[in-house]
Amino acid sequence: MSLTQSCSRRVANILPSLALFLAAPLLASAGTITSTIGEFDGPNLTNPVYPQPSLTIGTFTYAPITAPILSATVSGFFGTTYAPSTALENLFVGGIEVANCASEAADCWNDPSGVQTPWSYTFTPAQLATLKSGSIAYTVVQTGDFQVESGITTLTITVAPEPAPLALIAGGLSLLVFARRKQRA
User: Fold this and answer.
1) Domain 31-160: which topology?
2) d(Cα 59, Cα 55) in Å, to the nearest integer?
3) Disulfide: which of 79, 98, 161, 172 matches 30 by Cβ 3.0-4.6 Å?
4) 24-43 average pLDDT score
């Protein structure tokens, strides 16, 4: 066996392990993007008129998204850990209404248990494009008495794997097939 054939066989033997080693971090980088905004205590209003103008609670920030967005959800709590109730309000992410505390009879306004009220919203396919920029405002419009209290709120975006890592994996697998065929010949 010549030196070239011996080297080719060694390379062919380690290529599967090398391909898996290189592909693992690439596959892990695709998937989920998460951004969180902490608790928010709104201003105390004197002689308010409702609805109040829109107030920014915070901005979700993340790297701009180039891959297709598969799904996205935003979830949080009405009230904070110190004040578990909130004012009557409508919550928006990028101008899309994602939750509301619409009634004084609702737990979000006057929960007798003293525990924050959770809420969650799943974006429709038509709304996913609003999330691509990497920055999106989280706002509130107060529609009734009390003080706006917002608990920790998390935006979770699921993206398709980038085509470049998939191309690298496909290229690596093609090399494996080529090396095996050459080895058998």
Assistant:
1) Jelly Rolls (2.60.120)
2) 12
3) 161
4) 79
